[in-house]
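Input.
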Amino acid sequence: MKIANKISFSFLITALILTGIAAPIFYITARNNLENAIFAHLKTNARSRTRHIETLLEEHKKKVKILASDISFQNSLKLKVDDNPSSSKDIETSTLELKEALKQEKQFYEIFALNPDGEVVISTNESTIGLDKSTDASFLGGKEGVYIKDAYYSKTTGKRAIAISTPILDDETREFLGVLVARLELTGLNEITADMTGLGKTGEIYLVNKEGYMITPSRFIKDTFLKQKVDTENTRKYFEDIKKFGRKPHLHKPLKYTDYRSIRVLGLHDHIYDMQWCLCAEIDEKEALAPLAKIKILFVITMTFVPIAAWLIGIFVSKLISGPIQKLHIGTEAIGKGNLDYKVGTDAKDEIGQLSRAFDKMTDDLKKSTTSIENLNQEITEHKQAQAELQAAQEKLIDTARHVGMAETATDVLHNVGNILNSVSVTTASIRKRVHDSKVSYLTEVVGLLEEHAADLDTFITTEEQGRKLPAFLANLSKELIAEQELYLEALETLTKHVEHMAEIIRLQQSYSKTTGLVESASIAEIIEDAIRINTEALSRHGVEVKREFADLPPVLLDHHKALQILTNLISNAKYALSDSGRDDKILTICVTEPQGGHFRIEVHDNGTGITEENLARIFEHGFTTKKHGYGFGLHSAAIAAKEMNGSLTAHSDGHGKGTVLALELPFKTQEIAK
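Output.
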């Protein structure tokens, strides 16, 4: 491919890659920012409506409480209790006061007083006087203090209302004289929730009582009062919060869910604690995320025109670059044919211009040189050959270093895979033998039966006893074949488990070989278990028992892959030490100490022969090893990795025959601390 095409295509591919990466990131960021802005707006509206409703209810309670403190109510209830005939005047006065209060408070549609027995004695609605309200929630709750009866539908008045009640007490003796009850319509609450300012075409705010029924109007459905059940993720979360937190302040998580209309919405909730009401603020997801449609169009335009523009720019740039190069190419061909007077130099001040002038100078030098063209070509050929040999030697050296560094781990992995393949081979041979034996047995049985009944072949059909032998034989043979089939299935199951084990070894080896440098939240226990699984076959082969002595620790921030490499090397080193110890009880113990001084410590103990003081001082040196076939890279690379993680790797041994302790110390930093 021409260099001009390479440049233009490079511009095009670069633009495609950059837009392909940047566009989704920008889109996701824009979507998240838009959702966060919508949730913040809903939260502000919900909080504002909640405070407004709480303020309204508090004002109504204060008004009812003040009204109950009027001395005339106390006198009326006292006289009524004493059955004093002169109480009628006081009752009339109290009734007038209630009616006057009713005129002033437009949201109240009925006010009445109950005596201690729950009987209506004073009321703005004379038809209710004498009614027994002793079992009504307003009376029972009002006896204890200011009480609001939850929203209900009055069959007598046809109104949707709540009732506020408060005890009437004697100012002097604090004796309980009765209960004052004020009934009010829900128009005030409805006006608060029906305010759709800033909620768009599909946003709404509504109240749900503690039974899960809607008590304020829906924007979309008519007549929902105490009829529309709202069982959404939002209300379920509200009831969970009530059980978990009670009246304690807590965060309300915004949600995306399906609402009572079966439409996807963005929403959240707030609490009216005194009434155990849930205030839901919602807006349709389609409307909320509508601005993203314009962003999608912008993305399409960007993805289309940016690569095209980059490609055109690449063509222009390639021409600027390839023009002088083409001229230089023509010149080289002319000079190559022996025309040493041909000039290719240009006045350009860039690298190509410098090259062209240098080329002309080289041509002049060639003319003055006494070296023949043949010798010059020979020198060039030798130079290229030497350069190729040097490059090959470098590549061989790099490849050798890479393979030496991975030799020990690759040996264990290949041994594990080899064991599994051997087991697969044995199992396969077993299946073949079973198939062969089954066929031989089957043929033998058939021949034997035919020989046994050869003399009776003429009577096989006519004799009932002989006629039953053949079906019986065939039935027995069928049972044996079924049994053989089960054995084959067991063998195939064994093969499957071995293959799965091979996949696990390869996965762990890939994880071990990966070095991303990425610091992330990781579980120390899981890293230790992965390191043990990498060495499982070798540990089992050498008869090493692994003990774990560590409690659960919170996830910590570290390079998962480097930690896995270090622990794998430590366990592998302990495994070799135990295999050469000659002990019957080969035990490898891994323990994790509690964090101290901002660090935590992972120790790998073995009960092998231990390390001499002289070798202990050199154990982490590059190339030092006491193994017959070792390379001395494992502990050295582990120590370097520990240092890169701002930690340390140390070794301790009490002497020959006392075992060895390899300890890895790393900074202790949890996700919470990082935040």
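The chain is about 55% helix and 15% strand.
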